[in-house]
Amino acid sequence: MQKKIVLLGYMGSGKTTIGRILANELRLPFWDLDEVIGQMFGMTVPYMIQKKGEIFFRECEQKALNVVLQNPSYILASGGGTPCYYDNIDVINAHSTSIYFQCSPTTLSQRLLPEKQNRPLIADIEDKFLPEYIAKHLFERTPFYEKAHITIDANREMNSIVSELLEKLSVYQ
After folding, report:
1. Are the C-beta atoms of residues 89 and 147 closer than 8 Å to each other?
2. What's the alpha-carbon Rg for the chain, to the nearest Å?
3. 43: phi then psi, degrees, rounded to nearest 5
4. In this prediction, what percent of the chain has a pLDDT beyond 70?
5. What confidence score (pLDDT) does residue 173 get?
6. Could you tell me which residues come within 8 angstroms of residue 46 by beta carbon, excluding any fewer than 6 positions away?
7. Rounded Cα gap, residues 143 and 62, in angstroms
8. Confidence class for position 1, pLDDT limits 50, 70, 90
9. Are 25 and 13 in contact (CB under 8 A)?
10. Angle of helix 105-112 relative to helix 130-145, nearest 10 degrees?
11. 10 Å Cβ neighbour count for 33?
12. How far is CA 113 from CA 26, 39, 92, 134, 139, in A?
């Protein structure tokens, strides 16, 4: 069965965690775009952003995205900003079924706070300012996320999200 699925949404929305479960359920290969970037360019995303800057990272991200999209079947967890740069959202939509994991700033803040130090874009933000930072980013990114073929409420428990996704994908494709 050939399926090409790209998961979109803000960091902490569950793309990687749910993507792995979904890939297992659908018997598809799973890729996390940050891991693909690391393999292709020989450095982690945090290191790349810190040493080379965000523009360099976004260029590498676009190259890695285009490589993955050429595969016959996959589930890809994109980076939170991936659909917002260059023509990435249009390319994603042309080559795959895109799914937006929609989450509230409150849910995202609760999920991201304990792992903040592992997230280079928010590591230096004071805890009390994190919800405001996320809300601002969501405001900027939502127009790109909303171009996805499918939107799912990702504020819920994982099993509920996976069940709904499996149902929607069977209808969609």
Report:
1. yes
2. 15
3. -155, 150
4. 98
5. 57
6. 118, 120
7. 19
8. low
9. no
10. 120
11. 21
12. 31, 27, 29, 11, 20
